[in-house]
Amino acid sequence: PLTVANPDRVKLKFYSNVLGDNSTFIHYGKWDGIDLDQPGAYGMASEAMTDYMYRLSLGLLTHRAESRDFAYVDLGSGTGASAIHLAEKHSLTISKATCINLCHDQNIIAVERAAERNLSDRIEIVESSFDETPCEANHYDLAFSQDAFIHAVSKEKAYKEAYRITKPGGAFVFCDLVCGDNPDLTVQELAQFAEKNRINDWLNPSQTIKTCKLSGWSDVKFVDLSTDLRISFQLMLRKVSFVLEHGDTGSNSSRVLLMNYRDSICRRITQIERGVFKWGVFHCRKPVVMDLVVKPPVPFEKTNHLILDMADDNDEGCVMETNIVVVDILKKMNKETIEKLPKTVELLITMSAGLDHIDLDACSQNGIVVKNSGRDAITSHVVQYCLSFIIVGLRDALNQLSVPFPSSGWNLNWNCEGKPLTSSTIAIIGLGLISKALIEEIRKIAPEARIIYNTRTRDFDFESKFNLEYISCLNELARQCDVLVPMCALNKQTEDLVSKEVISNLQPHAGIINMARGKVVETDAMTEALQSKAIKYAILDTTYPEPLPKEHPLWSLDNCFIFPHYATNTMAVREALVSEIQPIIEDHYGLGHSDERRKAEEKALRYDLAIAHRLTAKYGMDMLVWNHISARFRTGCLITPGRKMWGRISPEDLVYSS
């Protein structure tokens, strides 16, 4: 190569000239499907390795794969070739790539190349060591590195720094040379290799996995790609040997340099075969930390090791920062309480259907997502409960409690004031999840019933599908109905929504059934209407105030039926409130699935895997290349790996293809 001042440019020029690739990729490559004889093969394999690692990353972070704000950091990025390649290839999803690199000259090259491709706004070049970066904590979806940590003075320090800057639930994917674990090799021989090559902290795969775990990472796995490394070295050897035999090597010193390089490559190939060192990919996840600040109604049983509990013993001694807070309906989460939460909290789970105990605006301002657990069970129970009250209310059934059978005998004219659901007009206020489910159930048993509704935002599709009538005026809604059912959430706009004026428009035969919060109905106005018989009845599962004082007149009215906020009081709901906490966390952070769900998914995968296996046998294919046959799976294909015999395939080996 021509003499230039910058040693890193000399190195790149050497790779470009000797390997003949004219590529900026100088990482070791992955050789699946790449012809070693084609021009630019080495650069193509290096690029393929970057793509393989990024696909592996997205496989871990499926919940973020299609996001438009994906951010990742490349630790030890060199000239930024990988970041530039990925930013160009995934322009719609990668919003920011941060390149951390200590070498000033390499960083200049990276800045130049990013600018050439108009990527300066999406690729940030930071001159820093990868074990002590200036990056913000909990910032990146992915920490990524190729062949850089071999230069680390302390692997644990580097892995801990990657942990610090990665988001909860994020991934850490890196490839590197590691010490071999061949039991036939002596400790002295391995130590000599490390000393000769000036390698600090020379760890084998098991030790690397252990160090990652000590640094806080979970679910750490190693994919051995030493075979690909051997191919890379073999191609290097072929290229250098060709130059020595047929090319113009220039000065004698250049020829000596190439001969030494050839001999070094030969030694490396022999060392790979003897297991002196290995090369491959490590991948792991950053766990999330949950704080269950209230006592759950049933014990919480956690089965996902990527979810940590603040109450758990921290054997590794890592600092745990709360990411998820779990509360119930009794825990008031006002603005002051929310602002006192750790800044690392980003998910608030409430074991309730209602949200009026949580300041949602404060949560939004602090970047906290709010979710309900047990929602399906709560919806089902409230709907069944409410529907039964609608029917018994219309039929005047509650007033028949303790009424004796007529002594003169039953006849067709006795006690027939009730009205069937099929010929009634049901008025519903609100059109949320529970309201919609209630309407669906009513339509199943009473398709002829008239259902009228009022809500702030109409749903025309649902309205048409279930034959609803929208009435914009609450007074008119009340005037036309046989029973009024408020089902809206409680907020500033819905306090006393069923006001004295609305109640005054109800017909004398009509009733009120309150399954919403007590304060949605103006209590004093309802009390007066019941006392004066202006309305026929009220069935209340909630009241305001709650509990209702013992001396309150509603207790003494024979046309008011009060239940103790009982709609969801079953063990099935209590169990769902707790059992759904883990799936909510798993879905939010893309942490896979709980054990039962994972077993079901694996069963489905195994079935498709068996189909692929049978197709392979049918067509007489070599079982080491049977990834060329894949089974249909849902909307895509199930792709199975090559170079592994049937019995060695594990669920982690499987990937989906569009």
Give keywords.
single chain, disordered N terminus, 7-stranded mixed sheet, 658 residues, 20 helices, 7-stranded parallel sheet, alpha/beta
Biggest sheet strand line-up: 3-2-1-4-5-7-6
Number of separate strands: 22
Oligomer: single chain
Residues in β-strands, percent: 15-25%
DSSP summary: helix tally: 20
End-to-end span in angstroms? 45 Å
Poorly predicted runs are 1-5, 626-635
Could you please describe the fold and organization of this structure?
This protein has 658 residues and is α/β, with parallel strands linked by helices. Strands 3-2-1-4-5-7-6 form a seven-stranded mixed β-sheet, with helices on both faces. A seven-stranded parallel β-sheet has the order 15-14-13-16-17-18-19, with helices on both faces. Helix 8 runs antiparallel to helix 9 (252-274) and helix 12 (375-394) packs across helix 13 (433-445). The relative contact order is 0.07.
Summarize the structure.
The protein is of the alpha/beta class and 658 residues long.
Summarize the SSE layout with pairings.
Elements: H1 7-19, H2 41-60, E1 70-75, H3 81-89, E2 94-101, H4 104-116, E3 123-127, E4 140-146, H5 155-165, E5 166-179, H6 187-196, H7 205-214, E6 218-224, H8 226-246, H9 252-274, E7 277-285, E8 288-292, E9 307-309, E10 324-328, H10 335-339, E11 347-351, H11 360-365, E12 369-372, H12 375-394, E13 425-429, H13 433-445, E14 450-454, H14 460-465, E15 468-470, H15 474-480, E16 483-486, H16 500-504, E17 511-514, H17 523-531, E18 537-540, E19 560-562, H18 571-579, H19 581-589, H20 595-618, E20 631-633, E21 636-639, E22 655-657
Parallel strand pairs: 1-2, 1-4, 2-3, 4-5, 8-9, 8-10, 10-11, 11-12, 13-14, 13-16, 14-15, 16-17, 17-18, 18-19
Antiparallel strand pairs: 5-7, 6-7, 20-21, 21-22
